[in-house]
Specification:
The chain is of the alpha+beta class. The protein has two domains: 83 residues, 3-Layer(aba) Sandwich (Glutaredoxin), CATH 3.40.30; 106 residues, Glutathione S-transferase Yfyf (Class Pi), Chain A, domain 2. It contains seven helices and four strands, in the order E-H-E-H-E-E-H-H-H-H-H. Strands 2-1-3-4 form a four-stranded mixed β-sheet, covered by helices on one side. Helix 1 packs parallel to helix 3, helix 4 packs antiparallel against helix 5 and helix 5 packs across helix 7. 36% of the residues are buried.
Amino acid sequence: MRLYDYGPSQNGWKIRAVLALLGIAIDTEQVSIFEGQSRTDAFLAKNPAGTVPVLELEDGLCIAESNAILIYLASATAYLPADRAEHAAVMQWLFFEQNYVEPVIGSLRYWVLTGKLPHRVPAIIAARRSAGDRTLDRLDAHLRHHDFLANNRFSIADLAVYAYAHLAADAGFDVERRAYFMAWVQRVKAQGALPPVMPYTADPHSLRELG
C-alpha cells in the first residue's frame, strides 16, 4: 500500500494514527498541495476531488476521503466493531466529524495558522466560531456520560473527531472550560503512540492559497 499524504493535514494524521495503532508500515508519498501537486492529471486519476489523503492498494485501487480510509484499515480490528448497531454508532460520529468538526474547527485553525484569517469574510468567520462552540459544547455534554464517543469504547470515531477537535485552541476556542472534553482528549492520548502533529510552518508554501 502507498499513502499519498500532506504532513500538516490532520485528515492525513488520522491515517497515520490508525496505521501506528495497528502496527502497519506502508510507503508514503508527500503531496505538495499548495504547489498544485494534488491538481495534476496523475493525481486526479487517483482522486477526482484532488484532495489528500489517498490510500493506493496493491492492485492499484485508490481510496480517498480520510474516514473512508479509516474504515478500510480498521475493518476486522478492535477499532471498528462488526456488530451492526455498534458499527452504525461509529459511523454516526464519523459523519459528525465531517459535518461539524473538520469544516468548522479545522478550517478556522488552518486560516489562523497560515495567516489567512484577515482575508476571510467576517460573517463567515463569526458563523464558524459560533458553530465550533456548539460542536465543542455537544462533545462536552456527550462525554460527561461516556468515556469514548461510540459504544463507550475507543474506536476510529474517537480518532476522527480528535484529529481536529483536540487542536481547537489553535483556532481560538476555549477548550479548558470543557472539562469532560479535555478528559476525553487525555484518554485518547493514552491509547497508544500517536503520531506528532506537523505544523504548517514545516511547509514554506502553506502561506499560498489553495488553487
